[in-house]
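User: I'm putting together notes for a lab meeting next week and I want to include a structural view of one of the chains we've been expressing. I don't have a solved structure, so I'd like a prediction I can at least talk through. The sequence is below, exactly as it appears in our construct file.
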Amino acid sequence: MSQYADKDFVEIFIPSPEVKELIYKNNRLFNDREKAAIIWNSNYWLKEKHKGLEELKSQSGDEELIRQINERISYDNEALKLFEDNNQGYIYILRIFEDGYHSKGQIVGYYGTFKTAWKEGVDEGCGMYPFEIKKCQLLYDEDENRILGRIVWPVPVRDEEYYIEEMNFFEWSAGKMVLDERGQIYIFESNEMPLERFEAVSEATKTRFEYMNVDIPNPFNKFDNVRFIGSHLEKTEHVAVVTSVNNAGVDVLEWGNSRGGCSEERFSPCMLTRNTEEYCNCFDRYTRVIVGHDYGAAVWMQPVIIDDVEKIRTENVHEIGMRISVDLYFFKFVLEDVFLKFFKPDLEVNKKRFTKAFKDDGEFLTSFQSDCLEPNFYTYESISSIIKLYRDDVAGYAFDALDKLFYLLTKMMELSPEAEYISVMS
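Assistant: Thanks for the context. Below is the predicted structure for the 426-residue chain, given as structure tokens.
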């Protein structure tokens, strides 16, 4: 077999080992416009994207692509210069992401210069946490000759030793950048460039390389457990499960640490790899829940399809879709009473549960089973009622962990509409 022609490019800009394997296997070659799109939509820093585009431009004979690359890099460089310049009375808002990029982060301060905000971002994060710098302009009431809002001492000054500690104002954002822990730009957005320049590089122009859809070989299937690779997300606790696969990319349900949360987003398969580890979600160790199988003391919840038989044994219960594992003690102390309330022993599938775990000749189970690896079946309606009860009536239990667990349960049911029941087993 001949050597794959684009191996150097693939090794740099496509981090997913599964995707690379398919590319090499199918000898999938990319034209220059596809390469430019992959570079631009990769998870590399802005500086590295520009470097990759410059190298591609030097080797390409596509004059229109060369023009677009020059236009993009020129636009970004001018916008960056405007962002860093503060001769119009702007304020730079610094936000540190101690819990990862997708968390809300914490505002650290308000600064009069970009340089001060950038240095403080690196120092405040101790070189460990990513951060965001947002450039905003104070709005004035010309009739009253006053700022709309309130500035608490110290006032905005250009001296690098001072910054605004607290503010309450109406803001217009001139742009923002998201940076890694070393201060390298990952995301940059500008609202300061002339409209015609913005429109020239925007999505409104469908022929732009930045917005073209590249057909990337996709090795992932629905419900695969995945994690992020080759990006700013690789170092975070964010992990995900695939919810759907289409030509535009891979939709994943992702979650982070205790202050992160859940969200469903679309990613290129280039940014994903299969996760074979037991991975933890957005809960701390006292409210532990994972998507996947927890081999410790846990309660497992999963959609199932059950054979139409008179005696329902393990082999008659077919698990499908996403599994959620809930810490056993969290379940017993917070959730079990309500799950018992909504358990229906007279439900046909519950009456037919049959086991030889307790008697040699076997027996039908007549109640909720715990700590014995026997399933308890709930209809989707019953699980939805449990969620509703907690959210509407049990105010004392309305804390963050439950909201996230119920989000996952709701999503689990949405992803497997063909299932008839949820199995709850410990």
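A couple of points you could mention at the meeting. The first helix runs from residue 7 to 13. The two ends are 52 Å apart (CA to CA).

User: Perfect, that's what I needed.
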